[in-house]
Design goal:
The protein is an alpha+beta fold. The protein has two domains: about 120 residues, no CATH class; about 100 residues, Alpha-Beta Plaits. Helices cover about 30% and strands about 25% of the residues. The longest helix has 14 residues.
């Protein structure tokens, strides 16, 4: 049975409409969010990776695959060393290295070569940290935002289960007259604020709204501001994660606090 992955579908959308900026952004979002299998020269040691680099006419590249089976097919069935990493981590590791990325080469319809410039752009798009500001809301109104942003935000928050109970998006008018939009997370887990704010920022970037702005706040359900937002805003319920058994230590690159290094 032929398996069509999310990356395959995103690549097909770009191929069908190469001038569609939204399709390109969706592809890069899928690449950044998905787990990719990076082909290595040898097994990872501690937090140091040694990717296998291929010298092509267009320049050096490393190879990734979006399924372990595809990596095995590329390797002729031989068990090859690899590291399973989010695409965003791989882009960050390759930024400024002058190395391109071969995706699913020879084993899937989504095969493609991404030049170093594309990886640099992706890493830069994901790098900026949200800025902290202080402002006093005076009133809330129904939000008016593009559907692409709502869909992207919904997808991001669907992967943030357990970090908050819900989020509410509304238009806001601040003291002094500034207007904008505010996304308030309800009952956020302590320490999760940075990750949640970054998810909102990425939803903006991959919706093609880099110049857009959405403020993020953290409230307790039931407090007056949360009630006022709920009356006019768009609510996103975050999934409740299922209880799981303790797991083994994370492999290199899967702990955000300890990103791997390239050899």
């Amino acid at each position: 049975m032929t398996v069509v992955t999310l990356l395959d579908a995103a690549h097909a959308a770009v191929s069908a409409a190469p001038d569609d900026e939204r399709a390109r952004l969706r592809f890069y979002e899928r690449l950044a969010d998905g787990e990719l299998f990076l082909l290595l020269e040898r097994e990872a040691e501690a937090e140091v990776l040694d990717p296998r680099v291929f010298a092509l006419d267009s320049g050096p590249v490393v190879l990734v695959f979006d399924r372990e089976e595809r990596l095995a097919e590329f390797s002729g069935g031989v068990v090859a060393p690899y590291a399973a990493l989010p695409g965003r981590v791989i882009a960050g590791l390759l930024k400024g290295q002058g190395i391109g990325l071969g995706v699913n080469l020879g084993v899937a319809p989504s095969e493609m070569l991404l030049p170093p410039e594309a990886l640099d752009w992706l890493a830069d798009a994901l790098a900026p940290a949200p800025e902290e500001v202080e402002a006093v809301p005076e009133s809330f109104v129904a939000p008016v935002v593009p559907e692409d942003f709502v869909a992207g935000l919904d997808a991001k928050l669907a992967r943030a289960g357990g970090l908050a109970t819900a989020a509410v998006l509304a238009g806001v008018v601040y003291a002094g007259g500034r207007q904008g939009h505010l996304l308030a997370f309800l009952d956020a887990v302590p320490g999760s604020q940075g990750a949640l704010a970054r998810a909102v920022q990425e939803a903006l970037v991959f919706s093609g709204l880099e110049a857009g702005e959405v403020d993020v706040a953290f409230l307790t359900a039931g407090e007056p501001a949360a009630e006022a937002l709920a009356a006019v805003g768009l609510r996103f319920d975050l999934p409740v994660p299922e209880a799981t058994e303790p797991v083994a230590p994370k492999p290199p690159g899967m702990d955000p606090a300890r990103p791997p290094k390239l050899r």
